[in-house]
């Protein structure tokens, strides 16, 4: 076995169209000089995304984080928001930056999405919304969450940043909730380099989102909202149009990588492998593995470091927990979410992307087996 890979392998690698194809597509911009402000490619991408996601309406944004912030703002919320600590920090920051108060609910021990059975105990008179995350593209307990939300008159805004291409019972994940927020960051399954969108269902919310992403400008002489700037430009919209052409093929290639990992890491005691939920079509966005410190002679951090020595860069998604981060730990405690705490301490996401060759996957699997076998001596 090679001591280390010659080229570094990172946890992900962005998909891109053929260079010539992108250049051909952006050429008209040198004539038109219309580069941004909801122009024709922006409109075309919105339409094509609506078709792909089988939704009536969606608002493109400059990135997923601003999409989340403006989605929350568009609903005019105030008070407490139930959410998960097992996510990317953007989810919680979007809540906090709207002057809302995050209230953390623990996660389900199997799929790591917010535990719907624990939600009601966290509801107070001030609760106005739930922001669950379809973490790793795993669908939350959407039916239970909807029922709780209806009973207590709460809005549901899904952070669907990981779910592009995922369907549940044949319905695209972004259809669930009052609003659903997507990220098209370069590291996500579908990318516009930087970008995101809000899937919405009411025209009034659409108008509000449009205004909020464009400084609150209603018309040239009428500015009736205190908006931000979260517009997507034409070059990124074209990147999205190109990438959307290949998306199903890209997901199919990810599936092969995912299945190769599953075969080669099968039946190792102390490892918990990912899985595809029932009635879900996955996008194979992540490959999270749990390393159980009670069974193995090595812990997650050792595996992480040992793989780095071999030029394999995994990520501890999601560690630390949000309620353990310096900017939140003064107010919150991760002891309140013990299931999330345990997962965060033992999870490692392995490299997965469409062009990851299967030889490299085998190398990574063999390296993990070797590291585990050597145990503490590593
Ligand atoms: C990527 C991500 C975001 C933020 O999206 P950006 O496009 O990077 O701003 C939000 N939430 C989750 C769970 C994410 O993974």
How would you explain this protein's 3D organization?
This protein is of the alpha/beta class and 378 residues long. 34% of the residues lie in helices and 15% in strands. The chain has a 7-stranded mixed β-sheet, with helices on both faces. Strands 7-6-13 form a 3-stranded antiparallel β-sheet, with no helix packed on it. A 3-stranded antiparallel β-sheet has the order 12-14-15. Strand 10 (217-219) and strand 11 form a beta hairpin. Helix 4 crosses helix 7 (203-212) and helix 10 packs across helix 12. It is globular. The protein binds pyridoxal-5'-phosphate. Residues 63-65, 87-88, 90-91, 133, 159, 161-162, 183, 185, 196 line the site of pyridoxal-5'-phosphate.
């Amino acid at each position: 076995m090679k001591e280390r890979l010659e080229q570094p392998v990172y946890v992900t690698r962005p998909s891109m169209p053929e260079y010539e194809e992108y250049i051909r597509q952006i050429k008209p911009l040198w004539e038109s000089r219309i580069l941004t402000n909801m122009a024709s490619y922006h409109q075309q991408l919105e339409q094509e995304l609506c078709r792909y996601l089988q939704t009536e309406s969606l608002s493109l944004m400059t990135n997923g984080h601003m999409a989340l912030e403006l989605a929350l703002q568009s609903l005019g919320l105030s008070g407490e928001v139930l959410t998960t600590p097992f996510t990317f920090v953007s989810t919680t920051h979007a809540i906090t930056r709207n002057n809302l108060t995050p209230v953390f609910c623990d996660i389900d021990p199997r799929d790591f999405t917010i535990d719907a059975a624990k939600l009601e105990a966290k509801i107070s008179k001030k609760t106005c919304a739930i922001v669950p995350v379809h973490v790793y593209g795993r669908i939350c307990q959407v039916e239970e969450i909807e029922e709780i939300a209806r009973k207590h008159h709460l809005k549901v805004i899904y952070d669907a940043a990981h779910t592009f291409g995922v369907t549940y019972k044949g319905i695209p994940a972004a259809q669930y909730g009052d609003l659903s927020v997507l990220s098209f960051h370069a590291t996500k399954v579908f990318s516009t380099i930087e970008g995101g969108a809000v899937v919405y269902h009411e025209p009034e919310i659409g108008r509000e989102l449009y205004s909020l992403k464009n400084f609150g400008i209603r018309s040239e002489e009428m500015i009736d909202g205190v908006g931000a700037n979260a517009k997507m430009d034409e070059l990124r919209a074209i990147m999205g149009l190109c990438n959307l052409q290949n998306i199903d093929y890209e997901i199919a290639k990810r599936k092969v990588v995912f299945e190769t990992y599953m075969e080669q890491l099968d039946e190792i005691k102390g490892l918990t492998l990912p899985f595809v939920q029932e009635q879900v079509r996955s996008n194979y966005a992540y490959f999270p593995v749990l390393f159980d410190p009670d069974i193995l002679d090595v812990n997650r951090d050792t595996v992480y470091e040992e793989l780095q020595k071999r030029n394999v860069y995994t990520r501890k998604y999601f560690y630390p927990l949000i309620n353990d981060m310096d900017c939140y730990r003064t107010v919150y405690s991760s002891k309140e979410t013990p299931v999330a705490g345990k997962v965060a301490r033992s999870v490692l996401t392995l490299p997965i992307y469409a062009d990851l060759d299967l030889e490299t996957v085998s190398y990574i699997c063999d390296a993990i087996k070797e590291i585990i076998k050597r145990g503490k001596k590593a």
